[in-house]
Design brief:
The complex is a heterodimer of chains A (253) and B (311). With 253 residues, chain A is mostly helical. Chain A has one domain. Helix content of chain A is 76%, strand content 0%. Chain B has 311 residues and is an alpha/beta fold. Chain B folds into two domains: 221 residues, Rossmann fold (3-Layer(aba) Sandwich), CATH 3.40.50; 84 residues, Alpha-Beta Plaits, CATH 3.30.70. The longest helix of chain B has 16 residues. The radius of gyration of chain B is 25 Å and the shape is elongated. The two termini of chain B are 33 Å apart. Chains A and B meet through α1, α3 and α4 of A and α2 and α3 of B. Bound molecules: adenosine-5'-triphosphate and magnesium ion (MG). Adenosine-5'-triphosphate binds next to α1 of chain B.
């Protein structure tokens, strides 16, 4: 593998973040802080502890996941959609680089950004609630795996989308609802039995649950199931990307 | 010279909708030449270049670049190629320096500010190096695309209509750049709608029409072979009609009998009734003339004839 192209793509993408610092970093931090004010302080004071954790602290992992998923998808999808839209992708496609190198450059940059963002939000939340991290290794593992997986998904969406509307469609119609219904703000056993079962079909539940376990040692589903689910996701996304590049889907006529 | 740097063999391209843009294209590009690809809009020039550069999947056929198959050995093949696309495409917010440096890295080369500086200076972009691309004029943007293509020191340069939208003076400058590149050993393939450009620059000319290569020829040979010449004699006294000794297809009277026009090509001289034969006959008939001029048809005439003929 030649590292120059990977570095070139990665640095160019990171430079784009610096140029759009406000919308890339500052705005997610502000919106997370708002969640804390509304859910943590205003509503949370009326909700009792969940599994021995105060409601404000309980929602921290879920909030980070929420940001991680949406930001990974939007960063990665925009990163590849924009050159496709402007036509400058000709250069990427005519360069002497493998598909893997393209993916590492774009997805690596998008994932780096959301990991950074996740850590910033974690830092921010420590101003609002007392935090403890029971399993730091697993916390970081979930953070990185989720960021990478959903950046891969974003990359796929960016290639699939042939207009700005579609670029917004998937995050708006699928990612956001799944995350909100994925137990970011509540524990699954707060739901009626029927919905508890339905909710298990939501992959985000496994991510949030596993991530929360790494903080407080409490989880809705088993940690093994969480790890299995995210690995499944990762493999499926990689498979889809391999197929995209093999066929030239939406990239090469 | 028979040392092709690019061999295209039996290339077919049918786009998704079923439109066949290339039909059995066979073409060899010689090392170090400037090759001009001419053809009307929609002939398949961009499609052909795109297949060679890996932007479009061929339906059938093979492209070999400097001994490397463009699909199975795409790394070796592509690192030799610089592409300047027809459409202006830019990351609007990047600076000139950054975008050109990016291209070099993308093509696997270690950073080399001195080379980037040289390229920018040769394209008169040095003063603009810290400008964002969106603040440049159209002609400057096109030169940035050329700079990007040259950033990684390619051995082969594709220029898809490099001078569209570029003013006359700049066009001449660009030709100079292209000539300089050729001198340094770079093979250049350009498409253009300005026939004068091909006439001025190219060593060989290919004409593509409706996805088929209809002609590939050395420019000089092409001009000679197809280039009709016209000799116009301005007569001292007008003629009402041609004397019987001069009745031949190649001769005609115009301007109320004041002008005698002789149309010929490179071959007729050899067959014994060329210009000298004509002049001898005129002398025998006592026809005198006060002036004469010759005109050679340009590549443009040839091109228009060719494309019309096949349409
Ligand atoms: N992605 C595509 N899908 C379907 N048809 C296409 C596609 N790209 C090009 N074509 C068709 O292929 C034909 C050749 O197009 P191409 O761009 O190669 O022409 P060209 O010779 O470069 O023309 P121009 O001088 O206008 O640049 C045209 O009829 C065009 O409509
Ligand atoms: Mg074209």
């Amino acid at each position: 593998m030649n590292l120059h192209p990977v570095r070139a793509i990665y640095m160019a993408e990171m430079a784009r973040t610096r140029r759009t610092l406000l919308q890339s970093i500052v705005s997610p931090v502000i919106s997370t802080s708002l969640y804390f004010v509304v859910f943590g302080a205003a509503i949370g004071s009326r909700i009792s502890e969940i599994g021995g954790v105060s409601y404000g602290a309980f929602i921290v992992p879920g909030l980070i996941m929420l940001m991680l998923l949406t930001q990974s998808v939007s960063n990665a999808s925009f990163g590849i959609f924009f050159p496709k839209f402007s036509g400058s992708i000709y250069e990427i496609l005519s360069a002497p680089i493998s598909y893997l190198e393209i993916v590492i450059g774009y997805v690596g940059a998008a994932a780096s950004k959301s990991i950074l963002l996740g850590l910033i939000i974690l830092g921010t939340s420590s101003f609002f609630v007392p935090l403890e991290i029971a399993h730091p290794f697993w916390m970081l593992t979930f953070l990185v795996l989720t960021a990478v997986t959903f950046s891969l998904l974003g990359f796929i969406i960016g290639i699939w989308a042939d207009g700005f509307d579609k670029l917004q469609l998937v995050p708006l119609l699928i990612i956001t609802p799944l995350t909100f219904l994925g137990g970011s703000f509540y524990s699954i056993d707060m739901l009626p039995p029927f919905w508890q079962t339905v909710t298990l079909a939501n992959p985000v539940v496994y991510l949030v649950s596993g991530f929360r376990w790494s903080f407080y040692g409490i989880s809705d589903v088993s940690v093994a199931a969480s790890v299995a689910m995210i690995t499944l996701f990762l493999v499926a996304s990689l498979g889809a990307i391999a197929w995209i590049f093999r066929t030239g889907y939406r990239l090469k006529p | 010279m028979n040392d092709p740097i690019i061999s295209i063999n039996g290339l077919n391209k049918t786009y998704e909708g079923g439109f066949q843009a290339l039909t059995r294209v066979d073409l060899s590009i010689q090392r170090g030449e400037i090759f001009a690809l001419l053809g009307p809009n929609g002939a398949g020039k961009t499609t052909l270049i795109s297949v060679v550069c890996g932007l479009v999947n061929p339906t059938e056929g093979q492209v070999v670049i400097d001994g490397f198959d463009s699909v199975t050995h795409y790394r070796q093949a592509r690192e030799r190629i610089g592409l300047v696309p027809q459409e202006l495409t830019n990351e609007a917010f990047e600076t000139v320096w950054n975008t050109v440096s990016f291209s070099r890295g993308l093509f696997g080369k270690a950073p080399d500010p001195a080379h980037i500086e040289k390229v920018l200076k040769s394209l008169a972009l040095w003063d603009k190096r810290d400008n964002r691309l969106m603040t440049l004029s159209g002609g400057m943007k096109r030169r940035v695309l050329i700079a990007k293509a040259l950033s990684h020191e390619p051995r082969i340069l594709f220029l898809d209509e490099p001078t569209a939208g570029v003013d006359v003076e700049l066009r001449r400058d660009m030709w100079e750049v292209v000539r300089g590149l050729r001198e340094s050993g770079v093979t250049i393939i350009l498409t253009t709608h300005y026939i004068e450009e091909a006439e001025e620059m190219a060593d060989r000319i290919g004409v593509i029409n409706r996805g088929e290569i209809v002609l590939v020829e050395e420019k000089a040979a092409l001009m000679q072979k197809l280039g009709r010449k016209q000799l116009t004699l301005h007569l001292q006294t007008p003629l009402n009609e041609l004397p019987t000794t001069l009745q031949q297809e190649a001769l005609s009277l115009t301007a109320n009998g004041y002008e005698l026009v002789y149309t010929y090509d490179g071959h007729q001289d050899e067959e014994g009734h060329g210009i000298s034969a004509l002049l001898a006959t005129l002398a025998r008939e006592g026809i005198t003339f006060k002036d004469l001029h010759t005109r050679q048809s340009s590549l443009e005439d040839i091109f228009v004839d060719l494309v019309k003929e096949r349409a």
